[in-house]
Design brief:
Helix content is about 35%, strand content about 20%. The protein is an alpha/beta fold. Strands 3-2-1-4-5-6-7 form a seven-stranded mixed beta sheet, covered by helices on one side. The mean pLDDT is about 95.
Length: about 200
């Protein structure tokens, strides 16, 4: 059984989607949610979905090995960042090489970097009159949004789209593709996984 650990900071809609996607799988499951915000809705979702969840502070994450030790005990096959806003410490990345991925709500390298998350991204996309945007799923490295790209999906924008409209389109792409990409990474030899199902 492949083991997935999710890091999240906010409401956790992507985390819930991943939990439900793998809920009836015989091959993989989300075993834990780790969160840097003790008041985040994702913790309520985890409780409702009966998935172990822990919150932590910045010291436990990047100044000590507390979070690293939790991860070592969990033995994840994949660490998935789903709306997680903190920069990942290099010592955790070195312990889990090529096992940490993130979903970004834009077509990297555009609209990436520090401060580029959530509505900040969508507002920038609208302000620049982009005709398309999308999601990027990528490996996490020591810099914000600079890891190797795994997968991108695009959507068209109209001249009248607001930042909220863009957010809704991005949410649809995340819900459709993120679980499939996670599954493909866990089972690369499985020819039956089709992103367009």
């Amino acid at each position: 059984m492949k083991r997935i650990v999710i890091f999240a900071s906010g409401s956790g809609s992507n985390a819930e989607n991943l939990i439900k996607f793998f809920h009836n799988s015989d091959n993989a499951s989300v075993i834990q949610i780790l969160c840097n915000n003790p008041h985040a809705k994702v913790l309520d979702r985890a409780k409702r979905l009966k998935v172990s969840a822990l919150s932590f502070n910045r010291i436990a994450f990047s100044k000590s090995e507390d979070v690293l030790n939790v991860l070592k005990a969990s033995k994840p096959d994949l660490i998935v960042l789903a709306g997680f806003l903190w920069k990942f410490p290099e010592f955790i990345l070195e312990t889990f090489p090529n096992k940490v991925i993130n979903v970004h709500p834009a077509l990297l390298p555009k609209y990436g970097g520090k401060g580029m998350y959530g509505m900040n991204v969508h507002e920038a996309v609208v302000a620049n009159n982009e005709t398309e945007t999308g999601i990027t799923i990528h490996y996490v490295n020591e810099n914000y949004d600079e890891g190797a790209i795994i997968f991108q999906a695009k959507c068209d924008l109209t001249a009248t789209d607001t930042a909220d409209d863009v957010a809704a389109k991005i949410h649809e792409l995340e819900m459709e593709y993120f679980p499939k990409v996670v599954e493909k990474l866990l089972f690369p030899k499985n020819k039956d996984i089709d992103y367009n199902d």
